[in-house]
Amino acid sequence: MEDLNPFRIAQKQLDETAAIMKLDAQAHAILREPMESLTVNIPVRMRNGSTKVFTGFRVHYNNARGPCKGGIRFHPEENLDTVKALSAWMTWKCALADIPLGGGKGGIICDTKKLNDFELENLTRAYVRAIYKFIGPEIDISAPDVYTTPQIMAWIVDEYSKIAGHNSFGAVTGKPLEVWGSQGRGDATAVGGMYVLREAAKYRKLNLKNARIAVQGFGNVGGYAVELAGKFFGSKIVAVSDSEGGVYDKKGLDYKKLVDVKKNKGKLQAYPGAEKISNAQLLELDVDVLIPAAMEDQITGKNADNIKTRILLEMANGPVTPDADKILAQHKIFGLPDFLVNSGGVVVSYFEWLQNQSGYYWEADEVYKRLDKIMTRSFKDVMAKQEEYSKDGTRISTRTAAYAIAVDRVAKAMKYRGWY
Ligand code: NAD
Description:
Rossmann fold, binds nicotinamide-adenine-dinucleotide, seven-stranded mixed beta sheet, globular
């Protein structure tokens, strides 16, 4: 049975890279575990006057290159190992993008669909009070992730500022513009992914106009990905899903109709005239580009043989397991790893933090121009590293190549700092 624990997967990916790049054993030992993990149990006053206890986490994986950076998830199945894995991937993501930040992540076990706004706000503020000493603009900066929103980030910045005794807008990113979020942060992850897709298509000589694309997930990342693939390249979105399942139409789905259906009927499967499919079926469609943009562990040793896409663009974190990676490589599927593809979010979060720290705000054009430069450079760095390590007919994966770049940067920073 394949081990689907995300943290053990993250460790396995690191181990494989360490062997290929002959990483110093001491650096490897430091990088296999997070620096520190915090678990908090927080009492929260509910609307009916009762008190309920929620469990939350915040993990600092590595800060050798800068303050920890990473989102917060509110999810019923959240657990410490997932948060640890995500904080490791944040470390590699920031290092690959070559921005001066380390890796962190947070989460609360909760079902946001069962909480009203009053309870959600109380929960968010209680979480900030519980982890206050562990976070801050110079220590660890949060951002939105699964089921957390700009409104939640605004509550976080407010609670943090109240405790600090002064406004501290750089304590969290992904805020609404009115409380000094950045232009372009809302769609940054998807836009960054589209820049990578543009480069990948050039590399593979795939014409993206009318290319068939399937997207799993229709949230912040997946929703924008659906919109932008049409807008940027004229691609055809043939399938989309949410947590309840998906819809398929080989002639293409209309973005505005998808948004209307999701808003008014609550689920994509209410889209008129399209075939209903499951999330599992969506992944196995014959398409040119497959974009997992929902949860981890979606393509595993069990279904990897059935994946038929030409390009696999990992917008979600950890959607492909190590067993699946090996099978996909045999099928010559061009996979682009999560911490390259979805780094646009953290890159613009970095821009937001910079703007907050300096008090000078950029126009949207400036944000996208700088984002494009970083995403394109990262893609090219990964392809060059793949060439460098692929000798004697053996080709390392783009994931291992991306890891090799990121791990080397973090290891060198630790070495200069005297950590080993
Ligand atoms: P979101 O909460 O906005 O949306 C999540 C989407 O996934 C929703 O459409 C939901 O219906 C769907 N979903 C949930 N469970 C599912 C399941 N079991 N099967 C299929 N679909 C399911 O979250 P998001 O911010 O869009 O994040 C999506 C992925 O992208 C996550 O892996 C996240 O870690 C990653 N990511 C997000 C950002 C960001 O800036 N938001 C940045 C980098 C990576």
